[in-house]
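Inputs:
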Amino acid sequence: MTELSEIGEFDLISKLTKDFKIQNKSTHKGIGDDAAVLSYTDKVLVSTDMLVEGVHFDLSYVPLKHLGYKAAVSNFSDVYAMNGIAKQITVSLAVSSRFQLEALTELYQGIQLACEQYGVDLIGGDTSSSTKGMVISITVLGEAKQTNVVYRNTAQTNDIVCVTGDLGAAYMGLQLLEREKNIFQAAPEIQPKLEGYDYILERQLKPEARLDVIEMFAELGIKPHAMIDISDGLSSEILHICNQSNKGCKLYEEKIPVAPETIRMAEELNMDPVVAAMNGGEDYELLFTISEPDFQKIKKSADITAIGYIADASAGVDLIAMDGVKVPIVAQGWNTMQQ
Amino acid sequence: MTELSEIGEFDLISKLTKDFKIQNKSTHKGIGDDAAVLSYTDKVLVSTDMLVEGVHFDLSYVPLKHLGYKAAVSNFSDVYAMNGIAKQITVSLAVSSRFQLEALTELYQGIQLACEQYGVDLIGGDTSSSTKGMVISITVLGEAKQTNVVYRNTAQTNDIVCVTGDLGAAYMGLQLLEREKNIFQAAPEIQPKLEGYDYILERQLKPEARLDVIEMFAELGIKPHAMIDISDGLSSEILHICNQSNKGCKLYEEKIPVAPETIRMAEELNMDPVVAAMNGGEDYELLFTISEPDFQKIKKSADITAIGYIADASAGVDLIAMDGVKVPIVAQGWNTMQQ
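Outputs:
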């Protein structure tokens, strides 16, 4: 193992980034100067996220390669949520002396895999020591034509509310990992039971972002009216769209797509799978509202589900439960400041 | 005092950012969606820095407002070092429960002051809890015409090597603060003696970036061949320029601009002020190499000093000491990974 104290900062950066290839024409100059230089012809999209060990991730069960992949992909997702294409990231990292070069190499291998998979270039960053644990800060840049950018605040009354994929699986994957961690801590001789839970574990540990959906919109020449990615749970995200658009909505519990594996895990833990879908977060699916004619063009896609419709603000923001009872939606997403 | 746990993340962000005004036409959409949307006509410059409490700053003597100002300005400096104009920043913050709303408000007041002073817009960020201390990650975006961008790797043989302002003062300010902290820790009844040291304290606690120099280059229609900002000390920065340009250089110790206040503090602490200038860092002055004819146009400026010239790589990278002895320059800048 190689201690980071044996390597200078510039050596470390070149070791960690040597296998990254530049894939985009818009990346004029990447790592190696005071700033990267980019050539954009359309609008520039910028988003940033910070992940703190012990708050956002637990290295006792998250492999570093997966962490790198997820950290990158969750940032790409913010650009897709604007109907844009992610093009570049910067990665800043603070790590305590507990981490060796080999650990950071694994983290960067995950970031590299995500960059290759989604056609994104690593163009800069910063590496420093921390007094405790690991902190990762990623900024993503992306591109979109001005007329294509989709905001949160432009939902229209009578729009169909759609989600991609299924919801709640990432949250149930986390519950499983936490359960097995607790069992292991109480009795280290018992091996974690993770077999047969592949789907929810993959959703938690190695989520994907929906570039494919953005590409489908472009191919079909359609544009949602409002869009957001589901990082904090459906409740929190639909409230952002409705509040910022000054609209109400009706969502139908029976329509919310939940995978069988998610339901199975929820039953095992005596939890309601709809709670996981509404408040779990980290699914990185897209929530969007779209006109009825445009919805007709995409409804054949098995991976898009209509879950309700946008109404005037006076109608409120409600979930219609299986039994027909109307329940106001309140944000219970992960609020990292309150954890 | 308001505990952060009493406020939700979105409330906190709106409280911290409510007084920021958008100043640039290129900021199409700032805070409030999945990503900010920017309109650039020229090249996009991007740089990022992470600051960790206990590694990069010590809150026992750094006021939070100054910290915010310095964190922002040091990022702007990276864009000026490319001969560009800083336009936007994102600010991500992780803080432990030791910090209250009032502390973060002070930090953001410093960031806001820097943004107003330098014409930069805050366009996004992330706020989360940390398990220990404060971590600040800032990404800056700036703009420059392609033909104006100045890199580190394009110094030419016979270029004049210039620095702006004076060097070593920020480092001596830090030494003073550390001395007074140690005295205070040993004997809390003794008040810190900081009067009469205003210049070096200001250079450490509230540095400025050299937007004025970039504007002067534009007015005079001149462009340095290579440029970098002095964040890690002159030694480290001239080595970046020489190594990346595959050149050598001769710098003259007697030419290096050091303020009288810096010399006085160094004498008080029995230190060599030139060591502070060469290896201290955090001055955020610009180091650039320029053709002799272009140098003639700027040499009247009292704030620019020629300190040597670029030579072929075979000449080596040397400092000619006061006594005429040639000393090879080696990097001894702050290497945060090795602290």
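Remarks. Chain B is about 35% helix and 25% strand. The first helix of chain B runs from residue 9 to 17.
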